[in-house]
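Case study.
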Amino acid sequence: MTELVIISGKGGTGKTSILASFAALAGNAVFADCDVDAADLHLILNPTIQSRNVFSSGHEAVIRQVDCTQCGECYDVCRFDAVIKSESHSGELKFTVDPFSCEGCGVCVWFCPVKAIDFPECVCGEWYVSDTRFGPMVHARLGIAAENSGKLVSLVRREAKKIADEGGRDLVLVDGPPGIGCPVIASITGSDAAIVVTEPTLSGRHDLERVMELTRHFQIPVYVCINKWDINPEMTESVESDAVEAGAVLLGRIPYDREVTNAQIRGVSVVEHGKGPASESIRGVWEKWLTM
Amino acid sequence: MKIAFSTTGDSLDSPLDNRFGRAARFLVYDTDSSAFEILDNSQNLNAAQGAGIQTAQAVANAGVESVITGHVGPKAFMVLQQAGIKIYHSEAPTVSQALELFNAGSLQEAKSSDVRGHWQ
Amino acid sequence: MNIAIASGKGGTGKTTVAVALAQTAAGPVQLLDCDVEEPNAHIFVKPEACITHAVNVLIPVVDESICDANGKCSEICQFNAIVSLKTKAMVFPELCHSCGGCLRACPTGAITEEEQQTGIIETGSRDGLEFVMGRLDVGQAMSPPVIRAVKKHTKQDALTLIDCPPGTSCPVIAAVRDCDFVVLVTEPTPFGLHDLILAVETMRELGLPFGVVINRSDAGDRRVEDYCRDEKIHLLAMIPENRKVAEAYSRGESITTAVPELVPLFRSLLEKVFELVGEVRT
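After joint prediction, the assembly is written out as follows.
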C-alpha cells in the first residue's frame, strides 16, 4: 500500500481540485482530508457519512469560582496570559481562564493551593468515515478556534490507512494542509511520497522552497507539479529548475483554466467535468505519477 | 531478568503487537521465575503526542532489561537506550514464539530505530 | 488601530490586500506579516535596511548531578516532552510548549531553562511603511510563539495591518487576537464560501468585528454575496478578476504599482473599515 500526500506550502494553488481528480482516476483508493482547518474535499467527493466520532484532545483549565480564594497563584504561573484578573466595582478580585489562550499545560491546576481548578478534556472536533462515489473517505472538522490539529491529522491518516489495509486498497490519497507547521508535519511524516502543487509566482517559489526543506527534513520523496503555469511561463521554467535542483521529480504542468472553477461550482472533479485544457493536463500528471 | 513483549492480549499465546509506542499492553516475563505480569498501556495508546516516549518510560520503570517488539520509533528508541534497555525486533506471531527465538539466541539486537517518527 | 487581514482558505489574495492597504494608507503605517509558516508580504513590500533577530523559546535543561529521578517533571508535563528514568530525565524539545511546569514542579531544583531558536523576525521599512515579518524555522511545529513575537512590534500610535495565516486554528487566533477589526478575504467559489463560513464563525466566537472582501469577484458564482447579505455581513469591497493583477503578483510587484487604477478601491475599503471601527467604539 502506498500513502501519497498532496501539499502546497502556499494555500490556494489548486491542491484539492487536483486531488479530487486523482480520486476519480485512482480506482482502488482511500481518501483522507487532512486539511482539517479548512476541509474542502467533501464539497467535491460529496461523502455519505457512515460513522461520526468525537475528537477530544488535550485539556483546558477551568476555575471553580466557589472554591477560588483569589490568591493569584494561577495568574502568576501561567506563561500564556490565559488567566485573566478582573476587579469588580466593590474591589473584589476574580480570576478566570480565557479558553482561547489556554495552552492546556495544567501548570495552574498543579499549583493551585486549594485545588480549585478543573482540567476537563477538550472536545476539539469531529471526524467521519464516509463513502464516496470513488471509495471510502476519512475526514474531520476541527472545532472553531480549536487546537491540536496535528493530532487530528494523525488520527485521520491512521484511520484511512486502517481502512485501506482492511479493504485491500493499494493507495491512500492524503489532502494536506497549507504551511509548514504542526498539521503539515503530521500530514507528511512517514508517508511514502509527497506531491507539491505550486504556482509560478514569486510567492509560490518561496513557499515551495520552504516546503521542500521540510520534506527533506523528514526524508519524504517529493514530486512537483505547476498549476496555472501559463500565468508566467518564465517563472514556471525557473521554479521547475529550482525544484529539480532541490531533488524533486517533475510531474507536469497544468494551465490556468476557468473550467476548474466551473467544475467546483458543479461539485464535480475537473476530470469528471471534462471540459477545458486543465482536465487533460491533470490526467497527464496522474499518468506520469503512475509510471514512478 | 525481565523481558517486555508488546502484545494485544494477556497470555503467552497472545499475539505480539508490532507497534511499540501504541501497543495496548506489555507482557513482562521474568526469566528467573518463568512468571509474567501484564503492564497496561492503554493510556499511552491514545496519547496526544509522545506515546512512544511515555511507553518507553513506563517499560523502563517496570525494571525490564530487554524489549521484544515489532517497530520502535526514534524517540522511544532514545529513551530505551538511555535507560540501558536492549531492543529486539521480532515478527513472531505470538509472545511465546518470540520468547523461544530469544532463548535460542536467534533475535538480533536493534542498533537503531527502524521506523520514522510519526512526530506525534 | 490594529486591522487583521485573514481568510479561511489560502490563496484568496490576503497578502495582496494587506500590502495594498499598507501602501495606500495615509500617516504612520506598519505591516506585520504573521503568516510565519509561509511569509510572503516582503516579496511585494521589498523592505530595506532589514535587521534580523532570533525568536527563542525556553526549553528545560536537567542537571543530572542534582536530578534524583523523582518523576515530578514527567508527571506535570501534558505534552510528554520530558521523561524521568531511574537515573535521569530526558527532554524532547520538539514536543515542549515552554510552559515552565517541570521547572516549577521539580523539588530538587535540577531543572533550569535555556533559550532555543524557533524562528526569526525581520524588521525593515520602505517608503515610510514600517515592515515586520516573522519566519518559523523549518521543522518547528508551533508558530504561535513567533506570531506573538511579531505582534510585540505593534505601535500604539500607528495604523497596524496584520497579514494572518490561513485557516481557523491556533495560529490564526494568535494573529487576530486583540485586533480592532478583521478583513476576511475570500473568492466567489464553493471552497471560498465554505472556508469563509468557518472564518466568520471563528470571528463571531472571538467577538471580533469583521467584514468581507471578495477577490476575483466575477470569477465564480454569487453564493458568497448572497451569504453575506443573508448573514448581514459588511461587504467591504469586490475586486474583479484581472490578468494584470495575477501577472504582477507572479512577478512580486505590488498591485498598487502595477494596477494603479485599483488604488481608489483600497482607499475606500480602508475608509469603510475606519467607519465600522468607529461605530464599534462608540
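Observations recorded in class. The two ends of chain A are 15 Å apart (CA to CA). Chain A has a mean pLDDT of 94. We will return to this complex in the next lecture.
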